[in-house]
Amino acid sequence: MTDAAHGTRTQVAADELRRLIIAGDLAPGQRISERAVGEYLGGTSRTPLREALKVLAAEGLVTLSPNRGATVTALSEREVEEAIEFLIGLESQAADAACEHFTEAQLAEIEHLHDEMHRAFRAQQLMAYFELNQTIHQRIVEAAGNRVLARVYATECARVRRYRYAGNRRHERWERAIAEHDRILEALKARDGALLREMLRAHHRNGWRVARQLVTRELVSTTETER
Amino acid sequence: MTDAAHGTRTQVAADELRRLIIAGDLAPGQRISERAVGEYLGGTSRTPLREALKVLAAEGLVTLSPNRGATVTALSEREVEEAIEFLIGLESQAADAACEHFTEAQLAEIEHLHDEMHRAFRAQQLMAYFELNQTIHQRIVEAAGNRVLARVYATECARVRRYRYAGNRRHERWERAIAEHDRILEALKARDGALLREMLRAHHRNGWRVARQLVTRELVSTTETER
DNA sequence: TGGAGTCGTATTGCATGCAATATTGAAATC
DNA sequence: GATTTCAATATTGCATGCAATACGACTCCA
Q: Mind listing the pLDDT tens digit for each residue in A140-165?
C-alpha cells in the first residue's frame, strides 16, 4: 500500500498523507486523528506524524487547530477561484520565458506527454488524463527556468487539485479541454508567448467554469464567512 | 526575550526562529542544533522544536538533512535572483487588480506608510525604513484582493529578505529608492496599472543590482552547483 | 605524508508516558 | 421537551529516554 517505504517516518507519513489528500481519498473538512493515521501507516508513533502534519499544514493541505487536531483543509469556492486566478498569473509569468528558453528535449517531453494524454482520452482513462494534463502544465512552467516559480506553482496546484478534477467528468468539457491543449502546444512550438498566455488563461477559466458547477455541491465549503 | 509568550511551544518556537532568520540574526548555512535552540528558548524540549523546524523547512527558511539536522537555508545568487524575478511577477500580477480595486482606506494606509518611510529616511533609520518599504509592497499586493497571491508573496519575500536589505546601505541607492517609491505611489493614485507595474519592476531590478554587489561577498553561497 | 580503518562522542529519529485540554453523554433543572 | 451541568472519555501538547546514525579524533599502514 505505502510504496514510499524509504526515508524517515516523518517523510513517509507526509508523502502518504499528501498523496491521500491530493488524490481526494480524504474529504475536505475530514478530521485527521493522529492515532488513526499511526495505525493506518502500520504502527507509526504520534511523534513523526505530528511533524508530518505540521509540514502539510505549512503547505496548506491540512488545517491545524490548537488542542483540537488536524483536518483536511476545506476551501471555499472563492478561495479556489483566487487560487486558480493566481495559477493563471503564474503561467502567464512563465509563458514568455518558457517560449524563449525551452530546449528541444523539453519540447519533446511535452509532446510525448501530450500524445499520452490523447491516448488516455481515447481510452477514457480520466485519472491518467488528469495526471498527464497536470504534468504538461508543470513542464511548461518549469521550462521558464525559474525554480522558485516552478516550486510555488507545484505547491499551489496541489492545494486546489481535487477541486478542478471534477470538471473533466463532463464529456463535452473533456473534449474541449483536449482541443485547447492542442492549441496550447501549437503556441508553444511557435514560441509565441503572448498567444500561449492567452490559450492557457482561457483553458483554465473554461475548466473552472465547468468544475465549479459540479464541485460546489460536493466539496466546497459553502460557508463563505468561515475565515 | 521571547515576547511571543502565547500559543503552543511549537508556535512560539517557530515564530521566534522565523524572526531570527528573517531579521538576519542567524547566518545562512548556520547550523541549528535542537538542543541549543531548546536552551535558548528557556528549556523547551526537542519535540516541539522539531515540529517548528519542519514548519520552517516547508517555508524554505531552514534546510533539513536527514540524520544531519537543520541549517539556515543559504541561497545562491542565482536563486535569489530567481526569487526576485518571481516577486516582480507577483507584483505585476497584482498591479492591475490593485489599481482597480483599492479603497480609499487602503490608499490612505499606504500613503501613511509612505510618509513614515520618508521620515525614517530623513532620520536615517535604515531598519525602520526597510520594514515600512516591505509593508508598502505587501499592502499593494494585498489591495489586489487575492489572498493566495498575498500569502505567497509574503512567504517568498521573507525567504529573500536579508539578501535584499543590504542594498539600502549604499546611500545613493537609498535616495533613489525613495524617489522610485514616490513614482510608485503616483502610479497607484492614478490607478494606472501598467505604469505601476513598470515602476515596481524597475524599482526591484535597481535594488537588486546594488544589493547583489554587497551581498555576494557576505551572504550568498557562491557554490552554484550545490543543488 | 597521506589515506583507510576504528572507536568514542554527539546528535538526530522515534516511541512512550503524563499532564492539559477538548469532547461526549448522561443526569439534572427549568 | 429543551437546555444546562458535570463527570467520564478521548485527544492533543510536550518531556523524556533509547536506538540509530553521523561526526571527529586517533591509530595504523603503505
A: 999 999 999 999 999 999 999 999 98
Distance of CA B22 to the CA centre of its chain: 7
Cβ pair B148:A86 closer than 8 A: yes
Q: Are B163 and B210 in contact (CB under 8 A)?
A: no
Q: How far is the CA of A51 from the C1' of C16 (A)?
A: 17
- Phi and psi, residue B207, nearest 5°: -60, -45
B90 touches chain A (CB under 8 A): yes
* Residue A122, all three cell numbers: 481515447
Using a 7 Å CB cutoff, list residues 19-38 of B near strand C.
32-35
Question: Is A120's pLDDT higher than 70?
Answer: yes
Residue recorded with cell 536579508: B162
**Quick check: A89 and B86 CB within 8 A?**
no
Q: CA angle at residue B84 from A191 to B96, to 5 degrees?
A: 70
Q: What is the C-alpha to C-alpha distance for residues A150 and A153, in angstroms, rounded to an integer?
A: 5
Grid coordinates of A23: 488524490
Kindly list the structural domains of chain A, giving each domain's residue range(s) and its CATH number in brackets, ordered by start: 9-72 (1.10.10.10), 77-216 (1.20.120.530)
pLDDT tens string A23-42: 999 999 999 999 999 999 98
